[in-house]
Structure formats: structure tokens, C-alpha cells
User: What shape does this take?
Amino acid sequence: MILTLALLLAAPDKLPPAAALPPPASEEAAVLAPVNALFAAIAARDGAGMAAQSTGTGTVTVATEKPEGTTITHRSWAELAAGMKPGPERYEERLTSPAVEIDGDIAMVWGSYVFLIDGKPHHCGVDHFDLVRKDGAWKLVNATWSWRATGCAD
Assistant: This one.
């Protein structure tokens, strides 16, 4: 203990970095709200509802993993929303244990997901969302996810 104190006094500019405090749970919930609303819109097959969660200016990027290699696809939020069509299948996306990082009016959500069709895993991967708070509301700027059809559990 005395040695540690002596070392700290001798080199005050060498203090270990302080551990950041996690954001309040209510702030994390506010950041997750547009992500959850996006998933609800996907389940409802509501393209307009999907687009409403975004700033409209970002992109969606998918890294599709296949045996022959990974394909990267970029689309606008409008293109993603326009691709949502009515159908008989039930869609559900589940994000497990998302990490939420917030710094002022920017935030990031990252976590593993599984996408189910009619209750069965169809594909899975990792979701990454960039968000900004504008006029007091969180909006999605960019969404990026990996997509694979193997190793998915519900």
C-alpha cells in the first residue's frame, strides 16, 4: 500500500484511467426504443414504420456470409423499407444481450440476433446500430449486420 501511494505521488500523470460509469438504465431504454420499434415494424411488415425509426440519411449494410465468401450489400433506409412486402409468414427478430454505449447525443447498439420465420430460425448474426438524438428523440442513422444461415439458435 505504501509503495503504491509512493509511486502515485512520484508520477501523478501516470494514474490509471478511471472506469466510465454506465449510462442510466432509462437512457439505455430510450436508445433501444427505435431498435425495438424497428423490430416491431419488421414483424408487422410495415416498411413505413421501419423508415420512421431512421434519420433517413444513413445506410443499411449487410455482410452475407456464404461458403463461397462474404458479400457486402449497401442500401438506403428507403430501399430497405420498400423491400418490406406483405406476406403470410411471421417475421421476428430477437436481439440478445445488446451492448449500449452512449456519449451525449450519439449512441451505438451492438448484439447477436436471430431472425425467425414462423417461429423457426432462418438466419442470425450480429446487429450494429448507430443512433443520434435529435430534438430529444433517438433515431437510427446506420444499421449494419452480419447474416449467416448456420449455427442459429432461437
